[in-house]
């Protein structure tokens, strides 16, 4: 039936159309259907119709005026330190004065026209006095004002070939910001300026001629700065050697570039253009020969084409290995000696001058993994510092160890003289095995506080690198803690199971593996560390080591919990039975009394004998996590388990991992949460016990016992109490026995 | 009937040989894949951008019109991606709105929002050809043999109304752009981009309308002569004195003629001079970040127009890769659904052609 329908319709139309069409429009002339191709319709009419048809086909795309094409391209800035933020986001300068270092890759200096900086500032910034200055390879190329408050604004600083080196260049940006109304620490907190990394960098005249290895390196930098990441195309064809090929290349790139790890993503050959264009890509093509070439693809991406012979092991890629510059080592902070004063300069602290009303200076050092002091032994800092005289009241320098304040040094008295080796003693138990952070926090009120700060070009305070830190002796002991396993993670440590794919796809795994290349400690690697990537549904595979951890608690930490609509606190329960617990009769009062007693008993028990139990779950429920690291079983000190929030960004997690191993506080204890601000929040079990790793000797027994007792004092108090009680009973019995008269 | 089959097969023979040549270039390492698996998101993006729910393929640049060409292209793509639902919707809409001539051919254009949306009942032979080709392929892909009946009707109508003897060479036939308007006493107007050798041969083989295969063979010869001096132009006219520029038509190698090398490569004729000529233009002009030529003067080679649409770049990349011996990997960009319908569809075709004939030309 269907085959006749068109014919029928056409037949009807052939009768009906001509008249109708002629009636509705005089301009369009229908052709009689049965006319002979060469006759029946005049040539004029046919030409008119054809002209309409040909005109319609004259332009069938988006016509581009030649003049409208801007040939310039930007080789973007790349921060050389990991920030623990999602890749590609703008970088923030906060406070009154800040300096950051960047890497800038320039394939051909003769193509450089300018250095472009794109900024956006808080409305609190006073534009007349707030500026930034830019140096390239220690040569200042320009100074700009911070005057963009609603959207990013760009400034191009002219630059010529002489100012830059072919390949890697160092860029330093210093910002000075003033509050437009107030002065002081509070005002300083309100100051920030962002630099749009994707649109800041070297402006190159055109992309012409930028190809090959140098072009690929520029593409890598752009991929990192824009957050688009690096595509890996055609990896499925690698078969059994897929992981070997991919890990070799991605880890080499990641380790060489330093800074925030670059996200990687697998794509098919045939793909759809995403919102962000790819800047760099690695494409695998099966071939009869092993060959490496660098090309520019149709979408402008710089591509490293790896031709491989199928079913052969990965071969060396010298053309690739040799081109990658090493921007920054992901080295861990230096290990310092104990039992002697260690100069700050030995762990990388250089004499620092402070100009701001608020400043925080963090420096990190490392103690041996088997260092523990739980007693009240003292460590000591001997500080060399100087501050100007006449600072306002309440000006102070705070000294912190691992975010615990250990000393407040007033600066509103005296000043103008160098204070040498000022002793700051503190509890050594604030220090811990592995990475520690020593912080100086400067607070100088405004004078006056309700006016913009006066121009200041002289330092307020200086802290000398000759200051020392003395850390007391510790016997070789170990407290269960994930920091050792974390320090030893390598790309090979990452492990997945059949359920991992629910939370970590191939792109995530390769991005994490790449982030873990570099920055590991060789001695910790020897532990054969493992990082198990878990789906939330697979919580049962985590060894809990006697602790209590429920799916509900993890969900509370990882999922953005929203109060269900209509569930207003204080409303009457929907069902009468649910109101039973609110009864006010005597039975209910008794029940509530019993609950109160029970809770009180449990609280007292926790105080006397801390046990993780509910504490971990309660702590987790208060967190807002991107990811959670777990190491609950002290019997597996080399293993970590990780779960992530469904909406988390793997590049932010990877970056936080890199930052934690180099320049930020990292995961510690038994459970560590990476919060939404990119900081690690740690939970340490209160009942963990130190383990002695050396024989007990006369020289160490006091320290060993001190640590063991300090770890759980109530236990030993109870033990000693029991012993005393038994002794008393025994003595009593002895007294009674000796006083008995023999009959 | 036997003679017809023999001739049809004879016509297909060069194509098979050419295809074999293409496979050799691929070195057998990358093979033709099922695009419904390897390029599913691309097809979904094309549908979302250009296909309405009712089955109308919309060309936004052209007053949101639909053409028999776009319906034929869409029907072919739905077949290629094994999308029976899209195929059914496109087929139904086309039969309802464009199959109104009475001879089986399709009216060439539908203008939405007008009292009479099909004011010109003339056909476009390339639209009819692709429509018939899609039906032939659908018969196999969906195992719905009834489509062959409709394909046969179109093929027969094309042979009857759009294939005429050449004025230049006795024994040769010419594939007209439409049933009406292109034949004059002293000349035939010919659009080289309406020649799709592979489609003509497959339709001929499936329907028995052998004239299509013969005309394809003749057209390849004409394209050979046209490519003597440069890229093949959009329009020419065939006169008793030979092939000359068409009066009143575009003589540039533009938006029409850019399909010539595409269809030749797709038909396995990678080394055809028309491909080589366009390859030279692209080799000279295509650069990353710079718009791709879309209209070129065939004599001087000067670029008259260029575009940044991904589809045109894909076309250039396919021609450059498939036309060069030993090339591995092409510069085709990812599919961009924000570009107009025409370059987007050409990009789809470039992908299909590469996959079928030069699988080594996958995008790098």
Instruction: Indicate the percent of residues in helices of chain A.
Output: 10-25%
Helix/strand-derived category of chain B reads: mainly alpha
* Major sheet summary line of chain B: 3 strands, antiparallel
Average pLDDT metric of chain A: 85
Strand content of chain B: 5-15%
CATH topology of the largest domain in chain A: Chitobiase, domain 2
Which structural class matches the secondary elements of chain A? alpha+beta
Shape of chain A: globular
CATH class of the largest domain in chain A: Alpha Beta
* Overall radius of gyration of chain A: 35 Å
Architecture of chain B, CATH level 2?
Alpha/alpha barrel
Biggest interface and residues each: A-B, 77 and 85 residues
The shape of chain B is globular
Largest sheet of chain A: 10 strands, antiparallel
Q: SSE order of chain B in H/E notation? A: HHHEHHEHHEEEHHEEHHEEHH
Determine the number of helices of chain B (DSSP H or I, runs of at least 4 residues): 13
Spatial ordering of strands, largest sheet of chain B:
5-6-7
**Rg over C-alpha atoms of chain B, rounded to the nearest angstrom:** 19 Å
For the record, give the distance between the C-alpha atoms at the N and C termini of chain B, rounded to a whole number: 48 Å
Straight-line N-to-C gap of chain A: 129 Å
* Percent helix of chain B: 40-55%
Question: What does this molecule look like?
Answer:
The complex is a heterodimer of chains A (743) and B (364). With 743 residues, chain A is α+β, with helices and mostly antiparallel strands. Chain A has six domains: 4-35 and 43-51, no CATH class; 73-204, Jelly Rolls (Sandwich), CATH 2.60.120.260; 212-321, Chitobiase, domain 2, CATH 3.30.379.20; 341-478, Sandwich (Jelly Rolls), CATH 2.60.120; 483-559 and 608-683, Chitobiase, domain 2 (2-Layer Sandwich), CATH 3.30.379; 701-739. Helices cover 25% and strands 26% of the residues of chain A. Chain A has 15 helices and 33 strands. In chain A, strand 20 (396-401) and strand 21 (404-410) form a beta hairpin. In chain A, helix 5 (242-257) packs across helix 8, helix 8 runs parallel beside helix 13 and helix 10 runs parallel beside helix 12 (613-621). Chain B is mainly α. Chain B has one domain: Glycosyltransferase. Chain B has helices spanning 2-25, 35-38, 40-50, 68-80, 84-97, 125-141, 147-161, 197-207, 210-226, 259-266, 273-285, 310-322, 341-357, and strands at residues 66-67, 109-110, 163-165, 173-175, 188-190, 236-239, 242-245, 292-296, 303-307. In chain B, helix 6 (125-141) packs antiparallel against helix 7, helix 7 packs across helix 8 (197-207) and helix 11 (273-285) packs across helix 12 (310-322). Chain B is globular and about 45 Å long. The interface between A and B is large, with 77 and 85 residues.
């Amino acid at each position: 039936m269907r085959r006749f329908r068109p014919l029928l319709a056409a037949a009807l139309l052939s009768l009906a159309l001509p008249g109708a069409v002629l009636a509705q429009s005089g301009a369009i002339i229908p052709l009689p259907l049965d006319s002979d191709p060469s006759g029946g319709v005049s040539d004029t009419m046919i030409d008119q119709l054809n002209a309409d048809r040909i005109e319609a086909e004259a332009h069938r795309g988006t016509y581009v005026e030649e003049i409208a094409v801007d040939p310039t391209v930007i080789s973007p800035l790349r921060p050389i330190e990991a920030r623990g933020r999602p890749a590609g986001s703008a970088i923030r300068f906060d406070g009154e004065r800040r300096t950051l270092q960047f890497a800038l890759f320039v394939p051909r200096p003769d193509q450089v026209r300018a250095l472009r900086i794109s900024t956006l500032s808080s409305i609190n910034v006073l534009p007349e006095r707030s500026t930034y200055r830019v140096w390239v390879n220690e040569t200042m190329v320009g100074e700009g004002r911070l005057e963009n408050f609603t959207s990013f604004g760009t400034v191009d600083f002219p630059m010529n070939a002489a100012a830059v080196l072919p390949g890697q260049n160092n860029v330093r940006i210093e910002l000075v910001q003033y509050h437009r109304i107030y002065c002081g620490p509070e005002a300083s907190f309100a100051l920030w300026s962002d630099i749009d990394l994707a649109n800041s960098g070297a402006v190159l005249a055109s992309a012409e001629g930028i190809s090959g290895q140098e072009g690929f390196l520029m593409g890598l930098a752009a991929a990192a700065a824009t957050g688009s990441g690096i595509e890996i195309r055609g990896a499925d064809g690698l078969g059994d050697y897929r992981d070997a090929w991919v890990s070799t290349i991605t880890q080499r790139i990641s380790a060489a570039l330093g800074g925030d790890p670059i996200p990687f993503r697998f794509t098919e050959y045939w793909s759809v253009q995403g919102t962000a264009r790819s800047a760099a890509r690695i494409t695998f093509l099966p071939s009869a020969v092993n060959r490496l070439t660098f090309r520019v693809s149709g979408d402008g991406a710089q591509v490293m084409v790896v031709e491989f012979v199928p079913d052969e092991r990965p071969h060396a890629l010298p053309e690739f290995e040799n081109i990658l510059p090493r921007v920054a080592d992901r080295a861990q902070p230096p290990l310092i000696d104990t039992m002697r004063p260690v100069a700050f300069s030995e762990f990388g602290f250089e004499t620092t001058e402070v100009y701001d009303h608020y400043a925080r200076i963090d420096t990190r050092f490392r103690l041996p993994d088997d260092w523990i002091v739980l007693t009240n032994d003292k460590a000591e800092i001997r500080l060399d510092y100087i501050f100007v005289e006449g600072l306002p009241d309440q000006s102070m320098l705070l000294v912190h160890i691992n975010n615990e304040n250990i000393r407040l040094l007033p600066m509103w008295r005296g000043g103008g003289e160098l204070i040498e080796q000022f002793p700051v003693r503190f509890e050594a138990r604030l220090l811990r095995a592995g990475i520690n952070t020593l912080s100086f926090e400067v607070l100088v009120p405004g004078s006056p506080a309700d006016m913009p700060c006066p121009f200041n070009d002289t330092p307020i305070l200086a802290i000398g690198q000759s200051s020392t830190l003395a850390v007391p002796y510790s016997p070789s002991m170990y407290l269960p803690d994930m920091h050792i396993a974390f320090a030893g993670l390598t790309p090979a440590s990452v492990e997945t199971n059949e359920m991992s794919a629910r939370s970590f796809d191939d792109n995530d795994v390769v991005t994490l593996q790449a982030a873990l290349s570099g920055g590991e400690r060789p001695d910790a690697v020897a532990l054969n560390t493992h990082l198990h990537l878990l789906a939330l549904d697979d919580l049962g595979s985590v060894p809990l080591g006697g602790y209590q951890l429920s799916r509900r608690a993890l969900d509370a930490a990882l999922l953005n919990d929203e109060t269900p609509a209509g569930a207003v606190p204080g409303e009457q329960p929907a069902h009468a039975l649910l109101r039973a617990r609110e009864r006010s009769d005597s039975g209910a009062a008794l029940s509530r009394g019993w609950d109160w007693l029970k809770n009180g008993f449990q609280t007292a028990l926790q105080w006397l004998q801390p046990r993780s139990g509910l504490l971990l779950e309660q702590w987790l429920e208060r967190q807002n996590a991107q990811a959670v690291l777990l190491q609950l079983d002290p019997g597996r000190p080399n293993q970590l388990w990780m779960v992530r929030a469904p909406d988390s960004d793997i590049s932010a997690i990877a970056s936080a991992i890199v930052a934690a191993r180099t320049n930020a506080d990292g995961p510690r204890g038994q459970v560590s949460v990476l919060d939404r601000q990119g900081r690690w929040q740690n939970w340490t079990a209160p009942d963990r016990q130190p383990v002695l790793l050396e024989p007990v000797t006369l020289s160490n027994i006091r320290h060993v016992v001190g640590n063991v007792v300090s770890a759980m004092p109530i236990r030993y108090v109870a033990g000693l109490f029991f012993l005393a009680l038994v002794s008393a009973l025994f003595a009593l019995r002895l007294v009674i026995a000796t006083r008995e008269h023999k009959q | 009937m036997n003679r017809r089959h023999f001739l049809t097969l004879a016509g297909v023979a060069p194509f098979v040989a050419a295809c074999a040549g293409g496979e050799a270039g691929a070195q057998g390492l990358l093979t033709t894949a099922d695009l419904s698996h390897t390029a599913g998101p691309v097809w979904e993006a094309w549908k979302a951008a250009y296909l309405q729910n009712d089955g109308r393929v919309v060309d936004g640049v052209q007053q949101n019109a639909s053409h028999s060409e776009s319906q034929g292209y869409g029907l072919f793509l739905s077949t290629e991606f094994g999308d029976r639902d899209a195929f059914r919707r496109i087929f139904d809409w086309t039969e309802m709105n464009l199959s109104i001539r009475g001879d089986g051919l399709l009216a060439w254009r539908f203008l939405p929002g007008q009292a009479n949306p099909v004011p010109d009942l003339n056909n476009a032979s390339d639209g009819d050809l692709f429509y018939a080709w899609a039906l032939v392929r659908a018969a196999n892909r969906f195992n719905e043999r009834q489509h062959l009946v409709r394909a046969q009707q179109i093929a027969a109508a094309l042979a009857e109304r759009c294939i005429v003897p050449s004025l230049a060479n006795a024994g040769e036939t010419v594939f007209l752009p439409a049933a009406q308007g292109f034949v004059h006493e002293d000349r035939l107007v010919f659009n080289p981009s309406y020649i799709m050798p592979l489609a003509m041969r497959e339709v001929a083989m499936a329907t028995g309308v052998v004239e299509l295969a013969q005309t394809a063979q003749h057209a390849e010869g004409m394209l050979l002569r046209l490519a003597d001096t440069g890229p093949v132009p959009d329009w020419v006219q065939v006169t008793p004195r030979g092939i000359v520029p068409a009066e009143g038509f575009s003589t540039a190698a533009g938006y029409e003629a850019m399909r010539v090398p595409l269809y030749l490569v797709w038909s396995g004729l990678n080394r055809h001079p028309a491909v080589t000529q366009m390859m030279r233009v692209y080799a000279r002009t295509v650069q990353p970040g710079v718009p791709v030529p879309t209209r070129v003067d065939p004599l001087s080679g000067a670029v008259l127009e260029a575009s940044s649409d991904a589809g045109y770049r894909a076309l250039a990349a396919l021609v450059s890769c498939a036309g060069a011996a030993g090339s591995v990997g092409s510069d085709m960009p990812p599919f961009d659904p924000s570009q107009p319908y025409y370059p987007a569809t050409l990009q789809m075709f470039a992908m299909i052609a590469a996959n079928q004939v030069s699988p080594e030309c996958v995008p790098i």
